[in-house]
Write a structure and sequence with these properties.
Blueprint lengths: L1 H95 L4 H31 L8 E4 H18 L2 E7 L6 E4 L1 H17 L4 E12 L3 E10 L23 H5 L5 H11 L5 E5 L3 E11 L22 E5 L3 H13 L3 E5 L2 H10 L4 E5 L7 H9 L9 E5 L4 H9 L4 E4 L4 H12 L2
Parallel strand pairs: 2-4, 8-9, 8-10, 10-11, 11-12
Antiparallel strand pairs: 1-3, 4-5, 5-7, 6-7
The structure holds adenosine-5'-diphosphate (ADP).
The site of adenosine-5'-diphosphate (ADP) has 21 residues, from helix 4 and helix 6.
Amino acid sequence: MLDFKVQRYIEEKEVIIRMLEENVEEQKEQKREIAEVNRLLVQRSNEIKVQNEQLEKANHIAQEALQSKNEFLSTMSHEIRTPLNAIIGISFHLLETNPKPEQIQHLNILKFSGENLLSLVNDILDYSKIEAGKVELENNVFNLPEFLTQLVAMYQVRAKEKQVKLQAKLNPNLPIYVSGDVNRLNQVLSNLLSNAIKFTPQGSVTLEVSTFESFSDHARIVFQVQDSGIGIAPDKIPVIFDSFVQASNDTTRKFGGTGLGLAITKRLLELMNSSIEVQSTLGQGSTFYFTLDMPIATAPAEKVQHHKNSTADLRGCKILLVEDNELNIIVAKNFLDSWGTQVHVARTGTEGIHMSDSNLFDAVLLDLQLPDMNGIDVAKYIRGAITNAKTPIIALTATVTASVRADAFAAGMNDYLAKPFNPNDLQQKLLYYCQQ
Ligand code: ADP
């Protein structure tokens, strides 16, 4: 009996020992597997590291390519703007100097084509600036209903030419004064309105604006441009906001345009924390809409009104034009001469400083990009210890960003004008400063 018990005990022990041995084997096997997984993990993480490095390199190359593309576009656009400025300016001038009847049509075509080309160049420049993240939004206080009414009034001429009924429906619940980038809002709505009129052979276009929700300090405002035009095919809707895309191949031939307007509109609205939406039915029309949160502002202090006197008032006014580009000089001189001013030209910043020192000018028109020095520094010299002149200085610049404007004012300049300038604006500013 005892023998049997001992025998069972031994057998049980042997089973336990076998199980323990098997367990040890299993653990060894698991350790081997873990080691293998670890090895694979290290290998994969090294591979990922290499892939990341390659991606970073590719990204860097892509960024550099984008940067040089943007720089190229920006340089080209600036280079093209200067001769265009001359073409538009001179055709404008010739139209004002009693052309023969047969010349009027040609001059109008020249002016119209120049303006179209300029808007294309501006679009390309603008788009590349937005893509490069170089667009700064400004903050201006403006009268919203007045701005919208004036905007629609500007497009009435074009709408009437096409016999399209254009109307503004402004909800009385809109705040009067708001703050925001009025120029960029103008650009967005202008793109939508000009498209709506362009793609509506007959019927109507409506700009509808209303407050969707009011808060103590801001209002959520819905802007909507609706037309009864040709509409957009459903498969084209997702792509019309891409750059250089048009809904059909014959759009440029039939309606003109470049396919950049909506791409710019979309990106500008993204900068304003908004997004553009569209609903459209082919053959029935389209509605483009977006919502903006706009801070409510108080009425700004009354601005000094620029006098609107006759051109005779500029006669004898002594102007110093500091500009190096020959075409710009010809265009500006054409206008300045026709208003009877006495123009003196300085072609470098140094020359400008010396001339403003020795001559008593009524106003200085100062280009900000001069061959020897930057216009901002020229203004500082004129205002500074060297001359201490009080002569009004108007900056002429192709890039009127908030920072350029702030630098110009900080350097003591009185005003600025974007190139290519509107002759009437230049005339109004000179009338104001020359009479002081
Ligand atoms: P563009 O008008 O210069 O061609 P956009 O980027 O402004 O370029 O518009 C892209 C395309 O979207 C247009 O070519 C047109 O096919 C379509 N589109 C835009 N607005 C409208 C509209 N109101 N009605 C019909 N189609 C439109």
